[in-house]
Amino acid sequence: MAADPETEPQATLGGGCFWCLEAVFAELAGVRAVTPGYAGGHHPGPTYREVCTGRTGHAEVVRIDYDPAVIEYADLLRVFFSVHDPTTPNRQGHDIGPQYRSIILYEDDEQQRQARAVIDELEREGVFDAPIVTEVAPLGAFHPAEPYHHDYFARNPGQGYCQVVIAPKLAAFRRRFSERLKNPPAE
Hints:
The chain is α+β, with helices and mostly antiparallel strands and 187 residues long. The chain has a single domain, classed as Peptide Methionine Sulfoxide Reductase, Chain A (2-Layer Sandwich). Helices cover 33% and strands 21% of the residues. The protein has six helices and eight strands, in the order βαβαβαβββαββαα. It has helices at residues 18-26, 48-52, 73-82, 109-125, 152-155, 160-176; strands at residues 10-15, 31-39, 59-66, 91-92, 95-96, 102-106, 135-138, 142-144. The strands form two sheets. It has a six-stranded mixed sheet with strand order 7-6-1-3-2-8, with helices on one face. A hairpin with a 2-residue loop joins β4 (91-92) and β5. α1 (18-26) packs across α6 (160-176). The longest helix is centred in the middle third of the chain and has 17 residues, at 109-125. The radius of gyration is 15 Å and the shape is globular.
């Protein structure tokens, strides 16, 4: 059943390539849909090619439709921070540019408050060796990515980037959050 963007709670997050985030969040219990796209920029109707120039202001993001009875917004953020490096501005590994920045795009004051609270929690706990540079900004327009980006890892698991970057990230996520997966591993 497809999620209804008019009624489903949503989280919009960017932390590097949207293929990575989509693959992770698609496996998380309580997540109903994950849509890769572009947000946080100034260019109307951006394309992948335009966003990749770094000149549109957009970040590659995922919009996550979720069931708050199964997973809370703050827990989505904790997963988000565990699967990317929020201490490197405009970069995730070899993906470099403002389109790969760490960003939380909030829809209301409560999401903004929770985003700042989770960041403060992680900073207090000293989870990272450097300060968190994740941008927290209001969500303007969300532009879904072109269809060939949707379910990219699921459709292209043998592709080089998928094997070298996404597969190890997904494996680490599955180990760490095995009890939170839609299909947990058999005991």
